[in-house]
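Re-running the complex after MR caught last week's input typo. The corrected sequence lines follow. Everything else is unchanged.
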Amino acid sequence: MIRVELSKLLRSRRTWVTITVIDALPTLVAVLLATTDAGPRPGTGPAFLSAVLTDGTLYPLAAIAMVLPLFLPAAIAVTAGDAIAGEAQQGTLRYVLVRPVGRTRLLLAKLVSVMAFALLALLVVAATAYVLGSVLLGHGSPGQATTTFSGTSLSSSQLAWRTGLALLYALLSMLGVASVALFLSTIVRSPLAATMGALALLIGSSLLLTLDAADVLRPYLVTRYWLSFVDLFRDPILWHDVVRGVLLQGGYVVVFLVAAWANFVTKDVTD
Amino acid sequence: MIRTQGLTKRFGRVLAVDGVDLEVEEGDVYGFLGPNGSGKTTTVRMLLGLVLATSGTIEVLGREMPARSAEVLPQVGALVEGPAAYAGLSGRANLALLDAMGASGVRASRAGRIDDALERVGLGGIDRRPVRAYSLGMRQRLGLAAALIRGPRLLILDEPTNGLDPQGIREIRDLLLDLHREGTTVFLSSHLLAEVEQLCDRVGVLDRGTLVVQDRLDALRGPTGRLHVRTPDVAAARALLDGQVEQADAHELLVRHDDAAALNRLLVEGGVRVEGLAPEHRSLEDVVLAATRSGSDRVAR
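Corrected-run output:
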């Protein structure tokens, strides 16, 4: 079933259009930066953006930091919200289940497919940004090591595994959104409602983060630690927020996936 | 093939299916009748493990459902409440996708089985157009093809001729009879009495969630103990059969009498010319109307 879902994902035009749209933002930013040379002052603007003017190899990380707060999670909310409710709405859910495909297996296949979409989007963004970064943006002289936020330098192998770690961290953050949207997708009849529900959580969480009165809630908000992967590029690595982020996302993932599973396997499929 | 005991489903406060004991034997073409909203579709969904019963047991192909659905369902082909397909893909791609799902069909024989199934339902010459461009009748045929790709032992079909023209209905009827001859058991849920009358040998009638009739069709349509007599001499016949005539018009009498041969002799010897003489049979419509109340789609004042 996982193979079937993956092939559906890859054959769907929507997948590629969405990824192209997501990818357009960092591409546009790269072009603007290259043509105007007006980067944000250090310490302001999106993460990494001030650094990329001097070192284009950091641009993949800046690009990921750009799409992570809204673009990518919104696309994931759409994909995961559609997972079960969409099949139910077009009537195919009942035919899939009587094939038979076990309900647990179907849910798992849908989750894998959503995460494959997230990975694909992140890789496309990172790859495009790498090319753009090295062609358009700050050319550190060849062989020169990349500089961390702490001012020390990173060898390219260190940069590679830290980037890999950052990708994994971003993926886990997206798994949190995916779990919430998938859970909603097993409850409501309309895929749109599931997507809107997940987006509401996302936007609500981002808003509350800026509100001082919501201080007590802050450590538990789903988006709280999403951008903490930046800390992986300090020297030494600042693990505190990264670890909390992993635990928090893990909590969201476990709670909502278990709820989705418990709801779906006991559900009357009447669509 | 299918056996349920005390099958009951409650949706909140609504009792949709109430203590249904179905019995479908191997080789039956079983017609499952009932007015709209009588619980037919809910029952079908319970047989397939889509809706979970509130109480009661279900056995399909001799195994308990939904616990053993992984063994049962691969041998069952189903069409539930209209066909459905991935609208952006072609009919053939849809079937290939379905066949690859679950305990997937043998890959090497997939293309051949898909061709066979399409051929059987009259879509052999189908092109690469996506399903969203199909007519309702084509979708219905595609849904049937999907039910057939794995050569099921049991077909569970809910309103399989919806959206088809008379020609198409005929084709599907012939197809189902062919499949039945090849040994497939057919469970046909429908509200079209004519369809069931022409296809089925056993009938169950559901009314407001209760199974009110379950019998062989020929037993249900057995003689009523009355005879139709066609004659030009109506008055003479009435005089001769005083008290036995229950209805009469200008050319025909309905006589309570259980022996056609004896009645014929009586009439002929009495000088009544007989044009036709036949035992009266109940129609399926009579049986169903007698057993059911009007459907839930009628909202009376």
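None of the earlier attempt is carried over here. Chain B has a mean pLDDT of 89. DSSP finds eleven helices and 15 strands in chain B.
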